[in-house]
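To the wet lab folks,

You asked to see what we're planning to order before we commit. Fair enough. Below is the target structure as tokens, and below that is the sequence we designed to fit it. If anything looks off to you, flag it before the synthesis order goes out.
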């Protein structure tokens, strides 16, 4: 199996104008996703052919490249130029299954973005309790705790500093710009998968 970045995902990101997310920034960011994809495929081809210390190093790199690929893939899959508002069904699922609300989800994500340093904001759903947790993952190869991740915001510098889009102190403005373009039906589908006992996988 070879991992790919679908042409329609790239077109959705690069052939539209996203307010608050300059094309130069998005072009560089998509380039990073492509790099993770290429490196992941290369490692999966190389690892069966090597041994010893070289193999140990490549296994370490595998976690870095694979999570870099998947985190960025999910980040871009939930992006749409005009955004898609949360459906009533999604809001009801949040209230009845996760015992939270859409407004609280947004507040938790926004607050998490004030964390010092770089990393990822990840919303995780526990497959047992169905509760949501908004966590900060400093390095994308770190394990995502206790559940299935249903929403991602990249908080590394490449996501908002390129081309001077935002200053380091303006992470909140970047998060708001990103949230304005989220397709919440994608996030809803991930949540439905968890509730049905399915793994969350790329679309």
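Sequence we intend to order:
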């Amino acid at each position: 199996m070879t991992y790919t970045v679908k042409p329609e995902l790239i077109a959705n990101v690069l052939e539209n104008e996203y307010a608050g997310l300059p094309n130069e920034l998005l072009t560089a960011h998509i380039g990073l996703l492509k790099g993770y994809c290429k490196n992941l495929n290369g490692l999966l081809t190389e690892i069966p052919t090597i041994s010893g210390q070289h193999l140990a190093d490549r296994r370490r790199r595998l976690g870095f490249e694979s999570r870099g690929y998947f985190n960025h893939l999910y980040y871009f899959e939930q992006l749409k130029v005009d955004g898609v508002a949360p459906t009533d069904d999604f809001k009801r699922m949040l209230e009845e299954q996760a015992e939270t609300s859409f407004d609280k989800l947004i507040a938790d994500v926004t607050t998490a973005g004030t964390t010092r340093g770089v990393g990822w904001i990840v919303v995780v759903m526990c497959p047992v309790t169905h509760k949501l947790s908004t966590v900060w993952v400093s390095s994308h190869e770190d394990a995502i705790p206790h559940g299935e991740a249903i929403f991602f915001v990249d908080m590394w510098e490449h996501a908002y500093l390129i081309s001077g889009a935002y200053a380091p102190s303006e992470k909140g403005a970047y998060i708001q710009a990103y949230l304005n373009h989220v397709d919440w039906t994608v996030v809803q589908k991930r949540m439905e998968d968890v509730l049905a006992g399915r793994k969350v996988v790329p679309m």
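Structural context that might help your review: The mean pLDDT is 94. Residues 52-77 form the longest helix (26 residues).

Thanks,
Computational group
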